[in-house]
Amino acid sequence: MNIEWYIVLSALLFATGVVGILIRRSPMVILLCLELMLNAGNLALVAFSRMVGNGEGQVFAVIVMVVAACEVVVGLGLIVAIFRRRLPLNVDDLRELRG
Amino acid sequence: MSATVWAWLVLLLPLLGSIVIALGFKALPAKAAGIIGTAAIGLAFACGVAALVSLLGEDPEARHHASSLWDYASVAGLDIKLGIFVDPLSVFMVLVVTGVSTLIHLYSYGYMQSDEGYRRFFSYLNFFVFSMLLLVLAGNFVLLTVGWAFVGFASYALISFWYRRETATRAGMKAFVINVVGDIGLVLAAFLIFREVGSFDYGTVFERAPEVFTTNEWTITAICLLLLVGAFAKSAQLPLHTWLPDAMEGPTPVSSLIHAATMVTAGVYLIARTHTLFVLAPTAADVAAFVGLATLLVAGTIALVMTDLKRAIAYSTMSQIGYMIMGVSIGAYSAGMFHLMTHAFFKALLFMAAGSIIAAMANEQNIDRMSGFGRAMRFTSITMVCGGLALAAFPGTSGFFSKDEILAYATARGGMYEIFTVLGYFGALLTAIYTFRLIFRVLPGKPCAEAQELIDTGHVHHAHPFNPATGEEEDTDVGFPGAEHHIAEQSWPMRAAMGVLAFLAIFAGVIQIPGLDEVVTHFLDPVFADSPLAEIVPSTGADWFGLGIGSVISLAGIGIAYWLYRVNPGAPRALEERLRPLHTFLFHKWYFDEAIDLLVVRPALAVGRFANRTFERVVVDGLVNGTEGTVRGAGGVVRAVQNGFVRSYALLLIAGFAGLALYFLLSSS
Fold first, then answer.
1. CB–CB of B1/B67 below 8 Å?
2. Closest CA to B344 of B352, B332, B334
3. Which domains occur in chain A, in start order?
4. Which of A7, A21, A37, A79 is best to mutate for the B interface (most B CBs within 10 A)?
5. B665 touches chain A (CB under 8 A)
6. Contact by Cβ (8 Å): B553, B425
7. pLDDT in tens, A16-39
8. ipTM
9. Whole-angstrom Cα distance, residue B77 to residue A84?
């Protein structure tokens, strides 16, 4: 099978994630979109790995998954903390760190 | 033990005393501070005597030793050791300084007793003695400068001792600033010496100077003139003298020790110590001699009209130092040093007696208000007369032998130097008149209120003290003597100190009778053996001829004073009226303060104001504010980006990456 299909799919997924981050305000959805972008990268890595024929890309994909898991833990923890303090779950309202 | 070990001990003891009193000022009882301070200096004097004995046990030619404990600085060809130089001259100075200091500590032990700052006073005083000893024992120009500056600081601290008194703090600042001018001269001279000779060490410098310099070359003249700036500032010679009369704001023992007996003679010591250089620069030496002469005449005339007891004696100090500076500059080295010693005795004594009277008057220093203390304070007045006789060079007293020796040398040198003899004798006449003017106005006559009370009751009632200069009440919390009127002669330490000094003032002359013993000359001769001027020795006959003239002049001066102030009490007032412009001129101290104010202080203030208004406000503030404005402006631009919208950060990030990706894509194809 041709590698281009995988790459196109990966690019589409990535673009979806980007658009999602840029247009959605809910931190939850933004976190999901981030996952989407990471997995788009994973898909590309695995595809290239298959194309080249060794396992290094897959190793990278596994590492990215670990990092993604960590990031989700932190991100969800933050969201829970925001929720507990009854702050609005809207990234546009959470802008106290502006210069 | 060798002389150098004793000399190190001489240095160590006052330093220890100062530190112990300073650190233990909370724990020590007041009396202990006084005892420790006095004992430290007394022991230092004993060590000085031991050093003298050890030095006398050696061959006269070999009586100089350098010793160093450790390197002070050793970099880039500079080799400065913490070294001392022990020779007859420094031992002589050590003995004078520690000897007089011991007596003055003893006097202060009683005099300052009711002062809140008793411990502080003794700590400062010991520190001063340490600095002065460092100055005279230093073995190189660097350590000399250190001692020189320490002494200046000690003087400042002690003049401003009553620091709530504005006149005192001002006087302290004035003394410090003028002394710093001198320090600069000394430091620059040391730099020049190092540049030319390549060493700071006394031994090396004096040994190599005759090879390095040719006579009257500009460098050696410049060095000597710069040394003179230092000497003039410290020794209150024209035109850097104005701080000394103001320094009388300090407690009287300070005036006695620092501003009469020891510190102000540092300039004389400096010239004597560097006489090798002055021999190579006769022009500079002549400048020094003429300044000394001018100072002795100017100060003598001012002392004639001063109505402030301590200030009048201060002007007399300047005048006597003028004699010494003149002496050591024209080559009468041992005569100058001998006059330094006798002057230390009788001037310290005169100040002590004045302090005793001033304390009984509750810090009133105006002689117009004093009279009749002869009956009220017998011991004080006897010692004061002893001091006065010595100062006026009454035949047979110590001042008689020392002053005339300088003038006899000037005659023996001949030529232009005869001027010094003639005007020196005129100065001696002034000295006798102004000394006995003070004595005749303060001691005899109808007792003033305080004196009468003392005669009647044996003590003086307590009144709240006030500053005679400004009239404001004294702040007694911080260590002004308080309402107490001290009757100095009623406490034995003061009596002892004054008694010993009175004895010395009268009889110290016997160690230096021309043609008979001349102890000081023989002792100091090895130091000055290298100077060709030391070979000029007035014959014994000339010496005695000089002494004869001196005694006539002294008696004449005392007679004039007696006629003016006792026989004919209206005469001074009439004379004053007749010579009104002259009196005003003298009373304003030749307008030196005003002239310096106009020529130096005001321009300096104007420069300061200009710097503040123009340079500081426009240039410095412009730079500082400009920098701040630039940073703030740049920050304002960048701040807009940090708007807190997470999504806009993401957009920037993504746009940036997209831009980079595009760039690489385009550049790779």
1. no
2. B352
3. 3-84 (1.10.287.3510)
4. A21
5. no
6. yes
7. 999 998 888 888 898 999 999 999
8. 0.83
9. 74
